[in-house]
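Sanity check record (used in CI):
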Amino acid sequence: MGLLLLIVVGGILGWLTAIIMQSEGSRQIAINALAGMMGALIVGNAANGSIAWSGLSAVAFLLGCIGALAGIVIANVAPKLYGSEITENI
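Expected output for GlsB/YeaQ/YmgE family stress response membrane protein:
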């Protein structure tokens, strides 16, 4: 259940970030949602040990949200630093 919660929260944070940043393309919305999901899963899982076998703690949930936001920032900053060839290959 905790794993599913982190996936949903990461996707929602990515979607909301795309709305706030006024991303028009569906590709950018999908990239933000996927980056949010991956960041939430990685950080939330690292903070709690193994979420798949144990429950989700409040600390792991908050760190998962922070991880989701960090993943979204990385996904939006990397193409600007390294050019557009990163997102062209996706």
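Residues 58-82 form the longest helix (25 residues). If this sentence no longer matches the regenerated tokens, the check is flagged for review.
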